[in-house]
Amino acid sequence: MSQDQVLAERRSEWLFLGLAALLFASSAILTTLWCAAMAAMGGMPMPGGWTLSMAWMRMPGQTWTGATMTYLGMWAVMMVAMMLPSLVPMLRRYRDAVGSRPPNRLGRLTLLVGTAYFLVWMCFGLASFPLGIGLATAVMRMPAMARGVPIAVGVAVLLAGILQWTPWKARHLACCQAQPVRGGSLPPDAGTAWRQGLHLGLHCSCCCAGLMVILLVVGVMDLRVMAVVALAITIERLPATGHRVARAIGAVLMAAGLYLTVRASGCG
Fold first, then answer.
1. Helix, coil or strand: residue 210
2. What pTM value is reported for the model?
3. DSSP 59
4. Of 51 and 244, which is predicted with more confidence?
5. Rounded-to-integer distance, Cα 40 and Cα 57, Å
6. DSSP state string for 167-186
7. How many CB atoms lie within 10 A of CB 201?
8. CB of 243 within 8 A of CB of 170?
9. Which of 24, 221, 251, 258 has the most crowded CB, counting CB atoms within 10 A?
């Protein structure tokens, strides 16, 4: 490889990292502003001593289509901020796997992988919105059901912790850590890039399912919960220690879930 090619690859790598950092910073700022706006609106106090987030309500005069688009826009920005730190190492492995290519072409292929990856997460968000709206509508109409929500939240956190210890979690986590294989050979075409992004997105969404459920039930627009979940997702992707970290996170979640369930049941 000539000196010019080495320099071109280095510039391409630095450009990729710089754009990723800029995208992360922008999405993090927008997410913070959005969370602040939601917090300023407050929520609806519910029987059982909890508050229903405004994320699951329509604004005055807003159509269901408008509410869905608002939620998906909020979800997209939030997912970029939360998932990009763990996605960047996977994208770097993809770039290495396709080998030396013209920087412009490599950039387009990387963009395709990232787009397909976040498309999977958008489908996750699209599925979560009607479920959230349905549950919100139900608890607003049925006070007895609303009073049981704190117990349900504790059980959900407990189950998410148990999930962290399962072979299913370990299998998907291993795929997130190892795919694509660094130094491997992937065809440098758009179809392969798109399939690779979908593949990574599916494994990642399955791997993060328990943690994302916690985000949805504890506080979908709570910046603190969001930051903790994002940190957990990122550190359990570390190849050397990720499996042990995932189990440690599971142990913490199980303890937290038991505590929340006992407290909500009035036994503590």
1. helix
2. 0.88
3. P
4. 244
5. 15
6. HHHHHHHHHHHHPSPTT---
7. 24
8. yes
9. 221
* Paired residues of 45 in beta bridges: 51
Radius of gyration of the chain (CA): 21
- Answer whether residue 107 shows pLDDT above 90: no
Q: How far lies 94's CA from each of 10, 98, 105, 171, in Å?
A: 16, 6, 13, 20
- DSSP 3-state of 241: coil
Residue 92 has pLDDT above 80, yes or no: yes
Residues 50 and 56 sit within 8 Å (Cβ to Cβ): no
Cβ atoms within 10 Å, residue 15: 13
CA dist 53 and 38 (Å) reads 8
Look up tokens 């754009």; give the residue: 19
For residue 236, CA distances in Å to 29, 171, 242 come to 24, 13, 4
Strands (E), the chain: 43-46, 50-53
Report whether pLDDT(225) > 50.
Answer: yes
